[in-house]
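Issue: ligand-bound run for arginine - logging full I/O for the record.

Environment: standard queue, default settings, no custom constraints.

Inputs:
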Amino acid sequence: MSEHSSDKPWGGRFTESTDAFVEAFTASVGFDRRLYRYDIAGSRAHARMLARAGILTEAECDQILKGLDSIQADIEAGRFEWSVALEDVHMNIEARLTAAIGEAGKKLHTGRSRNDQVATDLRLYLRDEIDAVRAELLRLQQGLLELAEREADTILPGFTHLQVAQPVTFGHHMLAWFEMLERDRQRLADCRTRVNIMPLGAAALAGTSYPIDRAYTAELLGFDAPAENSLDAVSDRDFVIEFNACAALVMTHLSRFSEELILWSSAQFGFVDLPDRFCTGSSIMPQKKNPDVPELVRGKTGRVFGHLMGLLTLMKGQPLAYNKDNQEDKEPLFDTVDTLKGSLRVFADMMPALRVKPAAMLAAARSGFSTATDLADYLVRKGLPFRDAHEVVGRAVRHGVEQGRDLADMSLAELRGFSERIEEDVFAVLTLEGSVAARNHIGGTAPEQVRAAIARARTRLKA
Ligand code: ARG
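Outputs:
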């Protein structure tokens, strides 16, 4: 980057040049250059609108468009020299354009300000990133559906309070994750509708005296509409916060999945095996295979939460309209986007490769009296009120705990010691397979329901 601190685009009213440290302190080009494509797209549309409205000649517009094309090519080829003295991505590109094409370049900023420009760039950028995030979410969801289908009959203990509760199917468990992500995908689609509104034309804050055609610019850029109010348009960053809130929820979900994968892949659970390529070893303990990926995703969730709080705080004290504070929106937003996309990508890659260990899950489900509720329900069907049935089964479980044996391992005579209503048919309900198969309604864990839910999920993904 050139350190040159001459001729600022706004230098006219200044009598001394910027303090060297202040120049570096106030510059954003180090990070906002990421927006170059959107800045150029916005400038192209703005120039075309100006020409159509007769504010620029067609020849000037052509020069601008060609100049912007070659700047984009230079940036993409790594030939563009970014200058801190030129502060931000907007002034870097504009200065280069003017250097390349002369007078016409100086006219590009007619009827525009960096305030509406940066808000526009950010919205164009975020719109693309939302699409990319939603595509990764979809890929992860599809992976979960495949896994759910493969393991629709596989039984594991379901937990409440992290204590064995009732048996569930692994497919059902994967579909729970799917639902969380489906809400995330919908939330992001909804968020996108508010992102896709165009600030351009708001200029610095009050609009512009040129006969601009905002609807035309909006159409060129694929925005749904121009922003209604110029003051709001340049100062609003709700859409950044809203996106970050959506991202925080996605990360919450990934963090919860991570926590389960970490537990499940421990020697104590042994429910799943993470593929080696998603794990690392220990430099001292040769036996170790650490679940780094889920641990990191769980850890990275914290920074996304932090960015959300940072952005809310950034906005809370700002009077209308644009304030330089807003420059601080970019680094948290970019980091949230990168963290979110990276976490989704690694999950989408990892989940289809997850190795499930049905024997360990089955053994765990067998050992925790997970069919106790089934026995109570059985007694209810035999005429006992539920509260009494609960009491009877509680005593049977206490006996089992003392003996170190599950309900299904007790003899009929033993079970009848707790209630005369128990008969030979009790063993059908005490099996894990019987227990899951019995929960056969929409939203239930029965394999049949899991398969039906997968079919519905696939249809929903197509909608
Ligand atoms: N770099 C600035 C930002 O990110 C661009 C807008 C600057 N506008 C201004 N009036 N200084 O917010």
